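User: Hello, can you help with two protein structures?

Assistant: Certainly.
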Amino acid sequence: MEKVTPFLMFQEGNAEEAMNFYTSIIEDSQITSIVRYGANAAGPEGTVMQATFTLKGQEFRCIDSFVKHQFSFTPSFSIFLTCNTEEELDFLYEKLLEGGQALMPLNNYGFSKKFGWVNDRFGVSWQINLP
């Protein structure tokens, strides 16, 4: 085995929007490759057939699924962010919460100084922690 990479499947054709959003709010992050569906391809032209991006060095893969599934993202799998400062945590929590849903509002839950859990506007779940 070479490596293990988290894989995100977007069903609304917004994989590129999500990647742009994530890499814009998390430092040292970038989109590393995008392959798009062309004309007469299996998916809608211009949508993401496959892409990779990194968040603080962690690689992710994603696609726009043209097949409608009976499932989407679930909070049982989340991306866990460990922040260095309260300002960083507050910024990320607020940005990820825009258009999303708070699962655990920012608070001291006893296991960290400050913690929050959100589903972002794309349905991806994020745990944001200040140890």
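That covers the first. Now for the second protein you mentioned:
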Amino acid sequence: MCLGIPGRIVALVDEEAMLASVDVSGVRRTVDVVCVAEPGRPLAELIGAWVLVHVGFAMSVIDEEEAAATLKVLTEIGEAEGEIEAMRTGSVEPFHPSPAPLAS
């Protein structure tokens, strides 16, 4: 099963591509932050934010309390380790579509 898991944005990897490094229980992965970036706001404002990560994307910004509660529930139902392992092994990567070719 693939669930969203809380992580904290620790650094920007590529602002133009909207990629950031997220720490999930000690495992760092590059994720796409396009879904949580606010238009017109510096991407750097996301550093330190807790986000819910799903299939390589930060899907929503959550507070630290919600992050802790979610991790606790995932651990209790036995799903946290699998999600963290998937991040550790790199079996989940962000999808970046190729730009569409220009019409002639």
